[in-house]
What does this fold into?
Amino acid sequence: MGNLHHNMPLADVEVRARALKEALEDKGLISAEYIEKWKDTFDSWVPENGAKMVARAWTDPEYRARLLSDAASAGAELGFGGVEGGFIVALENTKELQNVIVCSLCSCTAWPILGLPPEWYKSFEYRSRIVREPRRVLSELGFDVPEGVKIRVWDTTAETRYMVLPVRPEGTENWTREQLERIVTKETLIGTVNPDPNSVTELTPASAQAH
It folds into this structure.
C-alpha cells in the first residue's frame, strides 16, 4: 500500500494552484517539463529522507532517542533541513497508539522529509473529518486500526510540523537499513498506513538477510 490514491476531493487551494500553473504556462513563463521535474523531486525523492530517518531509528537506539527528543536536529544530522526543517517533531507509534497527522487550516507538512502533501491530504473532507472521526476516515482510506489501538490526531501549525515514527514490522529483524527504507512511504510518515514488509515483493528470505 505504498502508493495510495485516496479518493478525497481536491481542496480549493489545489484548484487555485492548478489555475495559476495553467496561466503561467499559457504566458510561457514556465514549462510543463519544469513543473514535472520539481514535482517528481518532491513526490519521489524527498519522502526518502523521512524513510532514511525512520530506518535509522529502527536500527540505531541512540539515533532513535535523538529523533524523539529533537527531530529537527536528527534530520539535520542526515542533511535534511533548510526552510521548515527546524520545526519538526517525531511522533512515536506503539502497539497501543497510532499517530495521524493533519493540517486542518491548509495543507502543511514537514516537507523537507515528507515532500509535497498528497492531494487527498489537502482536501477539505480529510482535514475536517480526520479530527472528528479518525477511525472511520482511516478505514475509508483502507487502513483498519484495531479497536484496542488508540488513535491520536496531531494538527500541524506554522510552528510545528510532524512526522510519524511507525512501529517496526515483525519479521524484519534481519533486514538491512536500506531494505527497511523501502517500506517507509509518505503515507506511513503521515500515519494513514503502517509499513508493510510484504509490499516489497522482490525481497526474498535470502536477500532479506543482513550483509
